[in-house]
Amino acid sequence: MKLWRLSREPHVALDGAGAEKFGGRYSSAGRPVVSLASEAGLAVLVALRYLLPDRLDAESDHLLGWTSVDAVPERIADDLPRPAIIACVDEWLDTRRSLLAAIRSKVLPEADVILMNPRHPEAERVPPLVTRPFSFAECLHRPPMLDVYRCR
User: Fold this and answer.
1) What is the rounded CA–CA span in Å between residue 20 and residue 69?
2) Residue 56, helix vs strand vs coil
3) CA-CA distance, 21 to 38, in Å (whole number)?
């Protein structure tokens, strides 16, 4: 399974340190978890939600990366209230019963957020991300034909 992540260069490690320190969308602080995406486009959309509007044109150190994992994610119900989802994910992390968990994305419901438990015994076998530079300014530039199509 190919998993995607868009992050700033200092945060490219798959260690879950950010979520451990601050908590994640689906987990409580104090538990490391790595958030990945089932699709590259979802990784970009999720990162875009957290980017300040005035930073879109700024040069950045963002990297789009992927890794390959030979594991089937455990499905987390996404139709529960947020506190119940966090409780489910926290319990999944604490028991270490699987390397990956999947929850349907709120940003793009056709794709999944894939959570990886860096404390699971199999986590040490997950290869580091293969990355390339990513620029929001290049990705979201004004298309040259916009005015032509807008007039029709």
Assistant:
1) 22
2) coil
3) 24
Spell out the long-range contacts of 16-24 with Cβ–Cβ below 8 A and sequence spacing 24 or more: 16/116, 16/117, 16/118
pLDDT tens-place values along the chain, 152 residues long: 999 999 999 999 999 999 999 999 999 999 999 999 999 999 999 998 888 666 665 667 899 999 999 999 999 999 999 999 999 999 999 999 999 999 999 999 999 999 999 999 999 999 999 999 998 888 877 777 777 777 66
H or E element, residue 67:
strand 62-68
Q: Which residues contact 75 (CB under 8 A, 6 or more apart)?
A: 101, 102, 103
The pTM of the full predicted model, rounded to 2 decimals, is: 0.90
Q: Do the beta carbons of residue 62 and residue 135 sit within 8 Å?
A: yes
